Amino acid sequence: MDSPSPPPLQFPVNLNSTLPHPRNSPPPPPPPPPAAHRPFFDEMNFFPSDDKSRVLSASHSNLTPTKLPFNVNTGLNLLTTNSCSDQSMVDDGVSPNPEEKRVKNERAVLQAELERINSENLRLKDMLNQVTSNYQTLQMQFNTLIQTQKTEDVGDPIEENPDGSGGGGNNNNNNNTNISNKLVPRQFMDLGLATNTENDEASMSSSEGRSGERSRSPGNTGEVASSKRQSPDQSSNWGSNNNNNNNKVPKFSSSSGKEVDQTEATMRKARVSVRARSEAPMITDGCQWRKYGQKMAKGNPCPRAYYRCTMALGCPVRKQVQRCAEDKTILITTYEGNHNHPLPPAAMAMASTTSSAARMLLSGSMSSADGLMNSNFLARTLLPCSSSMATISASAPFPTVTLDLTQTPNPLFQRPATGHFPIPFAAAAPPQTFPQIFGHALYNQSKFSGLQMSKDMEAPQPPPPPQNPFTDTLSAAGAAIASDPNFIAALATAMTSLIGGSHHQKENGNGNSNVDNKTSSNSQQ
DNA sequence: CGTGTTTGACCAGCGC
DNA sequence: GCGCTGGTCAAACACG
User: Fold this and answer.
1) A cellular component term (GO) from this record (predicted)?
2) Residue A196, pLDDT score
3) What pLDDT, in 10s, does the model give residues A381-390?
């Protein structure tokens, strides 16, 4: 059953930049970043918060370095303005009036300061240019790689499928029911565009907003039902990534006219799983969760807890928390859905990370008519590495990205089960790489706490991936790359908080609201 | 008393 | 059609 897992395709993601410029880009988030949690940003946060948006937009549009320094100069201009009368200082070298002399001294000081700032400004400009050129280089490489993959994948759609049994249905179509050994490809293809999640939220909030309302009507079942079908193995994906997958993909018959609907439903189902070592019942993610269920999952002695976000009424985000069967110190938290409300800074990092990952998954899949290709694209874009910290689950009925934070210290835990493609945040890779993978989502993300999905209907957002061809995804990814510093920052923060959180959660009470504490205290078992 | 958790029951999809 | 499983509901319960 278990098809031999394909060689891990890995996303080299390096949180420790190897670029010439060690400094990371300024943090993105609208709200002032909690410096305490973001050591990464502090270093290079030269720009005021509102400048960041400019940085972002600049990066979206071919990142013109010249625009950035502009902001820096603003300050200088102010100084310059002040020293407009400097000439007078030069004019007469001596002033009989002590007061005047003092003023001149001050001016001299200011001028010196001005020069210093100017030079720094130049230095920053240089840095920016260098970063920009690096970015462009990477983007070119990325595009080249993509094109290469594209050609390859088109010719070899199901190459990932070891047993080839499913080869027949090489597209999304047909693969649905028979997916036992089919891998990633299929999964991706059925995914909808992340950016559209709006639909989900709308539907979910209406149907699930209040528990009482949960409709059992067919209409709703469509949505819910689609999520329901998880093969037993899937539990492994959620909980203990164990293995094998006989994945049964929920009915994604793309061949029918319902394709779109199902796609939407699937979109919602994109999941991001975070594995982290923690003795606490839950990892700190800054959100408020309410536990609505707990079950024993097959293949794992540890119960799986179900939580839904309670930070806003009708927020469709849910998460499952379960300890890894093989190593109970590992806590596996799987997120699903996108928040429909602003998030507190504390929640931003994780939310951004997960939603970005999910949306990247979705957008990647959607952007191409041939999901298989996309899957391969995603999988293969990852360069082979040794350690896997993130995986794209091919086995799960729903596309799942797994961020494995347990391997930071020592990579020993489960290699992604069959069907998982490891996405290592290899230290050797440039930081841009990760964003390339997950960046697409970022594009919209900045608009709302990083999680808010765009209301497509109301706001015609730039990248409507759903309809975009593959190339659009690429360009979107490119754009994302430009803005990726945010993503990196968010990711780094998330990881930092996670890693740190695993050690401190007990004291922190998860850093969440009391709800979390309560939840944690009771949720397990 | 309000809020959140627990837990048994229910539902739906899939395999046999 | 039955059984299994994942996911969710909702009444009962616990807690502050």
Assistant:
1) nucleus
2) 39
3) 333 333 345 6
Q: What residue has its CA nearest to the C1' of B11?
A: A216
A293 touches strand C (CB under 7 A): yes
The rounded Cα A126 to chain-centroid distance in angstroms is 29
Q: Which single residue is written with the structure tokens 């949690």?
A: A37
- Cβ contact A232 with chain C strand, < 7 A: yes
- Residues A229, A142: Cα–Cα separation, whole Å: 36
Query: A435-478 pLDDT, tens per residue?
Result: 333 333 333 333 333 333 333 333 333 333 333 333 333 333 33
**A266 CB closer than 7 A to any strand C atom:** no
Q: Can you give the three-state secondary structure of A455-513, one letter per residue?
A: CCCCCCCCCCHHHCCHHHHHHHHHHHHHHHHHHHHHHHHHHHHHHHHHHHHHHHHHHCC
pTM above 0.85, yes or no: no
Q: Which residue's CA shows the smallest distance to C1' of C9?
A: A211
**Least confidently predicted of A142-151, A348-357, A435-444, A495-504:** A435-444
Neighbours of A101 (CB within 10 A): 12
Residue the block writes with tokens 């595009």: A143
Count CB atoms within 10 A of the CB of residue A23. Answer: 18
Do A190 and A365 form a contact (C-beta atoms < 8 A)?
Answer: yes
